[in-house]
Design goal:
mainly alpha, binds heme C
Length: 144
């Protein structure tokens, strides 16, 4: 009887999922496992940097601290970006995951938390170059 009630509650809980389904921004395992195909040559890195400045700095800030000019306004609407200079945040993301997040973006209750960049940065190689640059934002503890 108890198990039956739990199952019923679960079923009712499941009914609420459609509205909340996009609240989990987790890359599929196959995407997480993808390896950056672009070598970090100076040219690729500088392309990644300029794309970051053009598309990401607004929210993430020039150095990736989550303090870009739109960050506060954006946070009022949804939430602020994390500080990408923190080693533990970098360590928690694979290259494939960053690539996937840039491509898909993220919405929560129809609000854009982070825009998707497949149209604005249509070349996958360019999006991988942005990933290269995002990796350079990490600050080693000693230099802070
Ligand atoms: C309109 C503001 C905005 C723009 C523009 C934007 N982001 Fe984000 N981004 C966010 C927010 C907010 C989060 C935090 C979402 C969460 O995890 O809840 C985020 C999350 C991330 C994350 C995951 C780490 C984290 O903070 O959760 C990465 C990596 C990232 N963004 C990279 C980029 C890159 C690269 C670009 C440019 C191609 C970009 N973002 C453009 C707002 C933005």
């Amino acid at each position: 009887m108890r198990a039956h009630t739990t199952a019923l509650l679960l079923a009712l809980g499941l009914l609420a999922i459609p509205a909340a389904a996009d609240e989990n921004w987790t890359a599929p395992e196959a995407e997480k496992a993808k390896v950056n195909p672009i070598a970090s040559t100076e040219r690729d890195m500088s392309r990644g940097r300029s794309l970051y400045r053009q598309h990401c700095e607004l929210c993430h800030g020039r150095e990736g601290r989550g303090d870009g000019p739109s960050a506060k306004l954006h946070a009022r609407n949804t939430r602020p970006p994390q500080d990408l200079t923190r080693p533990e945040i970098q360590a928690n993301m694979t290259d494939g995951e960053i690539f996937w997040k840039i491509g898909t973006g993220f919405r929560e209750n129809r609000k854009i938390v982070m825009p998707a960049f497949v149209d604005e940065i249509p070349s996958p190689d360019d999006r991988w170059r942005v990933v290269l640059f995002v990796r350079t934002l990490e600050k080693k503890e000693a230099s802070r």
